[in-house]
């Protein structure tokens, strides 16, 4: 699959470049990543360069994961990253600390979910996050995802274990309106 760009009214989701690596390394060094993400810890510039230069292009080429930089404008700095694993339909994302709390990720999630349903045969977009990651849960709850419970996650932790996670999904036939039943 060739990478493609997505647009929201205020943001652009496009290809990551090696020039994004320093910002990614800085953002991923935030202690919140140690608690809630499975990224390497401590996260280094070399980790960011491998992610942008090797992992992302390989995943696009193999059609196993679509990953975008989130930007305010073309050529602008990376604000965060969002990706969709295929064929599972698993959604993952993060924003740099200075960009949180402005519903940037809500717009990006809506765009990626729409692309998933337009461009793939996935029956549902799935989400999981480490129990306690309230900010991530609020984002998908706003998008209409239905909370499906707490269980060992499919995405492995840094140590290879299945981390206790909140899970949710949004199917093709679901209304994209907030659903009851979330644990926060």
Write up what this structure looks like.
- This protein is of the alpha+beta class and 184 residues long.
- The protein has one domain (6-171): Gcn5-related N-acetyltransferase (GNAT) (Aminopeptidase).
- Helices cover 30% and strands 29% of the residues.
- The protein has helices at 21-27, 31-36, 45-62, 104-119, 134-142; strands spanning 6-7, 12-14, 65-71, 78-85, 90-95, 124-130, 146-156, 162-171.
- α1 packs across α3.
- The termini are far apart.
Identify the notable features of this structure and list them briefly.
single chain, 184 residues, 5 helices, 30% helix, 8-stranded mixed beta sheet, globular, Aminopeptidase, alpha+beta, 8 strands
């Amino acid at each position: 699959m060739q990478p493609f760009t997505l647009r929201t009214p205020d943001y652009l989701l496009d290809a990551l470049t090696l020039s994004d690596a320093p910002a990614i390394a800085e953002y991923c060094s935030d202690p919140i990543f140690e608690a809630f993400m499975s990224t390497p810890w401590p996260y280094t510039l070399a980790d960011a360069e491998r992610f942008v230069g090797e992992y992302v292009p390989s995943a696009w080429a193999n059609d196993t994961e679509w990953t975008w930089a989130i930007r305010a404008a073309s050529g602008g700095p990376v604000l965060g990253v969002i990706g969709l694993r295929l064929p599972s339909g698993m959604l993952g994302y993060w924003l740099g600390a200075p960009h949180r709390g402005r519903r940037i990720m809500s717009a990006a999630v809506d765009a990626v979910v729409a692309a998933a349903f337009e461009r793939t045969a996935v029956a549902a977009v799935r989400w999981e996050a480490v129990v306690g990651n309230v900010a991530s849960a609020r984002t998908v709850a706003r998008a209409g995802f239905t909370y499906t419970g707490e269980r060992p996650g499919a995405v492995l932790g840094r140590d290879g274990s299945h981390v206790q996670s909140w899970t949710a999904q949004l199917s093709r036939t679901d209304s994209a309106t907030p659903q009851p039943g979330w644990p926060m």
